[in-house]
Structures
1.
Amino acid sequence: SVGSVSLFTFAYTIQAVPLTLIGLTFSVAAFPTLSKLFSEAKNTINGEFGTEFKTTVRKIFALTTITAVVFIVFRLPLIDLLLGSGAFTQYHVLRTGWLLAIACIGMVPAGMVQLYLRALYATGNTKRPFIATFITAISTIIITVFGLYLIKNTSLDFWLAQKTGLIITDTNVLILMFAVATSSIINVLLLRGITKKYLGVTGTIDFKIVLKTLFIAIISNAVAYAFYAFFTNYKGIEISSHIIFILCLILDSFMIYVLAKNLNLPEVYEYMNVYISKLSKMFNYAGRIFVKQA
């Protein structure tokens, strides 16, 4: 339908931002260390290589999981804040919101893919990652074609329209985003198998870390969204929904930090400490300028 490609691009670009800040950043940062450890071990995989790899895996998993939940829960106010003006109507916000929600399904594995690739590149293994990426591309096409076949020959499009509130003809692009998200899962599974067989590392995440991450993501976002829903529907005061959304994001971030600190999840609170330190320095600098001008 009209505008589907643009909305797909908007949603994919939005979810790519945390992937760049988290998945790609940590993977690129770990690459020289992994290369050095592999070289120092005379082109063999030692315990330090595996430790560095697993540490980075835990960071990417925890941070991308929490971010994905934030994006899914607050997808509509986020898109409305970024794009909701002019000819971009609330229906466009709804369409882009569903695309973003589906894209976030593949956010965690997509972040992992970056690290698995760098780990293989660090050992000089470039052929097998290429094969895995090629198979992933083919699987994306197959899933898309199969999904469109189901829409054409079944009532899948009616079901999707009923569940999402979209016009029937606007549901086709959801299949494409689902195929892209699913391909990320396929890609990370293929790369995981390759690294396990040829490098002897898997990046398996401790079950406690998984539980802590999910608990933080669910509780913080549930509370923040409850505040958002209450104040946007409260008739006693008139506050812009964008301001309410920003305040709820601040509340969400605060809760994530506190919960991560109390549950001893350094993969999250140590990362947030970096940005807190930068914000503190920025406000201190702005304060000094204000005092001088005053």
2.
Amino acid sequence: GLIVVSILAFSMTGFSREAEEIHFGTMPTYSAAIYATGIEKGFFKKAGVTVELTVFRSARDRDAAATAGQLDGFMTDIMGAVNLNVKGFPFIITSREHDDFGVMAGPGVDRSSSRIPTVGISENTVIEYIVDTFVDQELKKVNILAVPDRMGALLGGKLDYGVFPQPFMGIIIGNGGKPVVTTAAKEFHPVVVVFEKQFIKNHKGSIEAFYDGYIKAVKYMQVTDFSQYQSVLVKHGLATEKTVSRYRIPVSRYGLNPLSEKNFNHITQWMQKNGLLKQDVDISSVSSTEFMK
């Protein structure tokens, strides 16, 4: 049986193709577990590509690496991708991820207070967009760039509310905080995968192999107990030995999905309204559906 399988695998990827390298960047979100699993369980290699994963602690560091030509592809959000394209760095959105963001209430927040409550955000980012779009009460925005610092301010009672991705939402709930609104519940999916335009042109087969490995990693995660692969998150710095067992990765929601045109249009309109975007950006100029199987 094994021999047949390996012949099939070869015939699908072509005998002689060397596994090309993709330098891929990500933030330490839940969905980044897909890339770590794909690497450590050999799904990318089997598909015919080597993925070198770099986990960044801030979007600024990731974008600096991208604009310096160190990344072929990476995980970002719609706003970040649009900004890079406008600045002359053509990174094309090829798919979207399922990553949840929540507006979280701190453990001791007094909702009956008459003063205007504070909310911790990151200015001019998708985090601020979430507050403007999904929260209907008046809030005083406090700009705290680093997510761990924002969480510390919320849990320490210095903020009433804050906007966070996972795994921070889960940590906050574990410390007595509560979600007020979550983006997944609103069908809002801002997190996307991008590849450099020239790289797509020259290495289409590598990106097809990347997505082939990606789909296989997702399927593996959906049928495998988390304890069997949680160590890959620790290895890639997506979790610590101490925190990983508390992660609740929503694998049933994972899969290969295209960018939502509705989400894209909403975000670009918000950017224009807030003076962050001076021109119209057509979705077809910054995204592609060619890798949707």
